[in-house]
Amino acid sequence: MESTNKLPENYIPLHELNVCSNKLMGGAKLIGINDFAPILIGDGVIPKIWIFAKIKDNIWIPLIKESKTSHPEIFIINDKINREIGIGIADTIVIKAKMTSDKVCEVNAIDLRPIGIDIHGKENELHIANSNFSNNTVKSSGFFVGISELGSAVNPGPGTMLGITKMPRRTLS
């Protein structure tokens, strides 16, 4: 997929997305890289998630589409009773998200480093490249953080999704 502002057809923005203590309201997306959202978290019974990995200039491939994958190194655990989802790559929890009410989602763990994007965080703090964020609130239909191609948060090099080695899987806990 080329870098554009176009969103997936089935993506429904959330009213509120809480990512590691940062509140994104009004449909705001976590990050934009040259105006492209490599991760989208949308509304659903459980959060609907799209994750893309960059393979070369302005070319992004989907790893997760609407919370589904066909990649053998990615595992997804859905819990419809508790309205939560966990996504992992090899032995890394990439994201844990839970719908806390209608159109409101909470992300308590995120680590996109296995796909070459320097974003990671736990309950109280989010790290994007060399910046730390906690307890912020933004209301926008745009991005919480926007990074240009020259920014340091994108590195599709060794250790990214396309070059990942097989490692034992673990449960999301």
Report on this structure:
Strands 1, 2, 7, 8, 9, 10, 11, 12, 13 and 14 form a 10-stranded mixed sheet that branches. By secondary structure, the chain is mainly β. The chain is globular, with a radius of gyration of 15 Å. It has one domain (16-163). Strand 7 and strand 8 form a beta hairpin. The protein is built from no helices and 15 strands.
What is the topological layout?
Layout: E1 16-19, E2 22-25, E3 29-33, E4 39-42, E5 48-56, E6 59-64, E7 74-79, E8 84-89, E9 92-101, E10 104-111, E11 119-122, E12 125-128, E13 131-133, E14 137-139, E15 143-147
Parallel strand pairs: 1-10, 2-14, 3-15
Antiparallel strand pairs: 1-2, 4-5, 5-6, 7-8, 8-9, 9-10, 10-11, 11-12, 12-13
Give the helix proportion (percent range): under 10%
Overall geometry comes to: globular
Number of strands: 15
Helix-and-strand structural type: mainly beta
Please summarize the sheet with the most strands. Answer: 10 strands, mixed
Integer count of domains:
1
What is the H/E order? Answer: EEEEEEEEEEEEEEE
User: If you average the pLDDT, what whole number results?
Assistant: 85
CA-atom Rg in angstroms: 15 Å
The DSSP helix count reads 0
Report the oligomer.
single chain
User: Could you name the ranges where pLDDT drops below 50 across 5 or more consecutive residues?
Assistant: 154-173
Estimate the strand proportion: over 45%
Cα end-to-end separation: 32 Å
